[in-house]
Specification:
Strand content: 25-35%
Structural class: alpha+beta
Mean pLDDT: 76
Order of helices and strands: HHEHEEEEEE
Largest sheet: 7 strands, antiparallel
Radius of gyration: 24 Å
Number of domains: 2
Low-confidence stretches: 42-58
């Protein structure tokens, strides 16, 4: 019985060692289908290209539009229309564990956007607007820096 148990344990150790060696195939090469200039986490920490880490390579806002966002069309929207829409929203404000104020924008029962920072909605300007499948995503800026977005359906 002891020899059987010792044999099984030796087989298990050999299998684990051989499996680890077989699984390691070296350093993976670049994926030609996905072009990455920096990681999404770097954008979130503010190390990406553009303003505040929220911009992707070609001047396209990064927040929720994907890494490249190349199939989006920029659209023009009246800033007065955006301000009227913002006036209809309710704001749920909270502070995250890092001490940053986040304002969740709610229209009825639907979550439609967020603002990172303690800003009055009437102070925000329209930075850019993009046509998406769900509506028009409007990026809001304060003094030229993107601080949030709102989705207008």
């Amino acid at each position: 019985m002891k020899k059987l148990l010792a044999g099984l344990m030796a087989l298990a150790v050999f299998g684990l060692a051989f499996g680890a060696v077989a699984a390691y195939q070296g350093v993976p090469g670049p994926n030609p289908e996905v072009e990455r200039t920096t990681t999404p986490m770097a954008y979130a920490k503010g190390y990406g290209q553009g303003q505040g880490g929220m911009m992707a390579g070609e001047g396209t806002p990064y927040m929720g539009l994907g890494v490249r966002a190349s199939n989006l069309t920029e659209t023009s929207i009246d800033p007065a229309e955006v301000q009227d829409y913002l006036a209809q929203l309710s704001v749920e404000e909270f502070t995250n564990p890092r001490g940053v104020t986040v304002q969740k924008l709610v229209y009825g029962d639907d979550y439609v956007g967020k603002i990172v920072g303690d800003y009055d909605l009437s102070e925000l300007d329209v930075y850019a607007a993009y046509e998406t499948l769900n509506g028009v995503k409007v990026f809001l800026a304060y003094e030229g820096s993107i601080v949030g977005f709102v989705l207008i359906k």
